[in-house]
Amino acid sequence: MSRPQFDPTTYDSQLAAKAERLRELLAPFDAPAPEVFDSPRANYRLRTEFRLWREDGQRHYAMFEPGNNHTPILIEDFPIASRRINELMPQLKAAWQVSETLSFKLFQVEFLTTLAGDALITLAYHRPLDDAWQAEAEQLAAQLGVSIVGRSRGKRIVIGRDYVEEELVVAGRTFRYRQPEGAFTQPNGEVCQKMLNWAYEALGEREDDLLELYCGNGNFTLPLATRVRKVLATEISKSSVNAALANLDDNGIDNVSLVRLSAEELTQALNEVRPFRRLAGIDLKSYDFGSVFVDPPRAGMDPDTCELTRRFERILYISCNPETLAQNIAQLHDSHRIERCALFDQFPYTHHMESGVLLVRR
C-alpha cells in the first residue's frame, strides 16, 4: 500500500472524474446517471498497515511506493486514517521505543478500528514470541484500551479479542458486526454505511427469497435479510463464515442459511452437476429465489457464475472494479437492463472506485 496523495482541495474534482468514468463504462448499456455517494475528506480509513523502518537507531512507521521497497516514506501521522488510529500511532511508537521486548524484530504494525470506537493492533515479528513479550503486550493493551494480536512464524497470541465490534445504521436500525483480525472488512465505514442503505433501498421489500454470493462477514447479509422471506448465503473463507454466523446470531436474524461454498461450487450445486456435503440439510428446491446479490472480488464474476445470475429477476451487484463490472454486464445485457447505479467513494484520492448496479429482467 502506498500513501495516497492527500489534498482535500482536490476532492470534489476527483470525485467528479470518477463519476464521469463510471458513466462512460456503463453508457453502452443505457445506464441512468449514477447516484454519487461521497466520503469524508479525512479520517475515513478504519484499517491500515505500516512496515517499520530503522533510521537513526529508531523504528518508524513507513510506506513504500509500488515496486519500490528500498525508499521508505516515513510516517508520523496519517490523515486519511481514523482519528483513533492517529491517536494510537504515537502512543504505540513511544511504547516500543522504550521497550526492547516489544520492539525486537518487530517489522509490521496493523491497525483495525471501527466507527463504534473499538480498536485492535496487530504486531508482526521475525522472532518467536515468549512470556516476557506477552506480559508487556498485556500491559500495553490495558494502557491503550485496545486488543493486541502478536504474530510470528506459526504462532498467534491474542490479548483481548481477535476481532473488533462495529455498529452500522441501516434504515434506522443498528446492526452490530464482529470484524475479525486478518479478514476482509470495508475500510471506509461511513461510505460502507451509505452502501448498505443504498442496497437495502434498491432491493426493496420482497416476498420471495434472496441468494447471496461472496457474503464475507455478513456485511450486506444482515440488512438485506430483513427485506426478504429467507436468504441462502455463501462464502469460502472459514474466518468470514464464522464471523457471519456470529453476526447473524448477535442481531437475532434467523432467516439466513449460510454455507461455505465458493460461487463456482454453488453454481455446480444449483445446476445439479454434483452434490456437496456442506449443503446437507439444505433443500435448494425449497427456495423461491427472486433476487441475487453479489459482491465479488476485483476479478468480477467468472462466466459460469455470471450466467447463473441471469436466472434471477433482479441482480444487485456491488463491485470494487468497474472494468470487470462492465464486462459482466456485457454478458447479461441481452436479458437484463440497468435500473439503478451508484458510485461509492470508498477510496478518496486514488483511482479506485466502488460501484453498484441493480439489474432487472427485460
TrEMBL record:
Superkingdom of origin organism: Bacteria
Q: Which GO terms describe its molecular function?
A: rRNA binding; tRNA (uracil(54)-C5)-methyltransferase activity, S-adenosyl methionine-dependent; tRNA binding
What are the EC numbers?
A: 2.1.1.35
A single Gene Ontology CC annotation of this entry is: cytosol
Residues annotated as catalytic = 320 (nucleophile), 320, 354 (proton acceptor)
Under CDD domains, the record lists: AdoMet_MTases
Give the UniProt keywords, A-Z. Answer: Methyltransferase, S-adenosyl-L-methionine, Transferase, tRNA processing
Q: Which residues bind S-adenosyl-L-methionine?
A: 186, 214, 219, 235, 295
Q: What does the similarity note say?
A: Belongs to the class I-like SAM-binding methyltransferase superfamily. RNA M5U methyltransferase family. TrmA subfamily.
Task: State the protein's name.
Answer: tRNA/tmRNA (uracil-C(5))-methyltransferase
